[in-house]
């Protein structure tokens, strides 16, 4: 079973700080492919698909908020698996 977190890309300008995108989770296993939305939201410019969380060099968000968000994504991924 493979679980990935992703966002549906919205068109966000480079300096746009107000846009929010919902974090979705995708579960794939053999013939199963399920996608579901979460309550987590992030600015599309700050999302890293490789890390499945905040980009490492985002200075506009404090470390506590970034760590809380990244931990929430990892916890939800763990619950799903």
Describe this structure as you would to a colleague.
Strand 4 (47-48) and strand 5 (53-54) form a beta hairpin. The protein contains 1 helix and 5 strands; from the N terminus they run E-E-E-E-E-H. The protein has one domain. It has one helix spanning 63-80, and strands spanning 2-7, 21-29, 32-42, 47-48, 53-54. The radius of gyration is 13 Å and the shape is globular. It has a 3-stranded antiparallel beta sheet with strand order 1-2-3, with helices on one face. By secondary structure, it is an alpha+beta fold.
What is the CA-atom radius of gyration, in angstroms?
13 Å
Our count of domains comes out at: 1
The tally of strands reads: 5
Low-confidence parts lasting 5 or more residues at pLDDT below 50? none
Structural class: alpha+beta
Distance between the termini: 7 Å
Element string (H = helix, E = strand): EEEEEH
What attributes characterize this protein structure?
alpha+beta; 3-stranded antiparallel beta sheet; 1 helix; globular
Fold topology:
Layout (H helix, E strand, L loop, with lengths): L1 E6 L13 E9 L2 E11 L4 E2 L4 E2 L8 H18 L1
Antiparallel strand pairs: 1-2, 2-3, 4-5
């Amino acid at each position: 079973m493979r679980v990935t977190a992703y966002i549906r890309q919205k068109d966000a300008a480079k300096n746009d700080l107000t846009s929010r995108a919902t974090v979705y989770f995708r579960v794939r296993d053999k013939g199963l492919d399920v996608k579901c939305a979460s309550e987590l939201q992030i600015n599309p410019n700050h999302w890293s698909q490789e890390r499945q969380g905040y980009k490492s060099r985002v200075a506009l968000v404090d470390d506590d908020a970034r760590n809380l968000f990244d931990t929430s994504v990892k916890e939800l991924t763990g619950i799903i698996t």
